[in-house]
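testing teh design pipeline on a random one, pls ignore if ur not involved
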């Protein structure tokens, strides 16, 4: 087997680089166990993060579902409220409601007018009692300046 000139030159270059390559090999070999430990750590850490991410996604989905349900409930409640407001407004604007309101006001006025004389009599009696009371000055003072 005859080596060509080019092959011999390559072999010489490689033999000149051999100490450097050997040193790099030993450096890499020395660092390999630490790199394997780091890899194992990150793999387990990554599994933990994947699991945590899955849990958080489930929790997020649950919360989103609850929010959607609450929004739907709120919307239904608002619809019911609007219907009741419309009904109340239609009642308030009806002629029967106005008539009823007028009747109540009239009856209240009639009641108060009927009792007007009674209230006058009661006030007159109270004033007469105070007028006859020997300690009226103290009583009036207590009423005016509590």
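output:
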């Amino acid at each position: 087997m005859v080596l060509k000139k080019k092959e011999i030159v390559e072999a010489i270059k490689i033999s000149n680089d051999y100490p450097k390559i050997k040193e790099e090999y030993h450096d890499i070999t020395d660092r390999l166990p630490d790199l394997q430990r780091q890899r194992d750590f990150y793999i387990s850490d990554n599994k933990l993060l994947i699991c945590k991410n899955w849990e958080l996604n489930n929790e997020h989905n649950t919360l989103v579902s609850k929010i959607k349900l609450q929004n739907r409930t709120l919307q239904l409640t608002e619809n019911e409220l609007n219907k009741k407001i419309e009904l109340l407004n239609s009642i308030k604007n009806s002629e029967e409601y106005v008539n009823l309101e007028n009747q109540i006001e009239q009856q209240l006025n009639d009641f108060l007018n009927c009792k007007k004389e009674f209230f006058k009599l009661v006030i007159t009696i109270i004033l007469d009692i105070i007028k006859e009371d020997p300690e009226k000055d103290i009583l009036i003072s207590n009423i005016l300046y509590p």
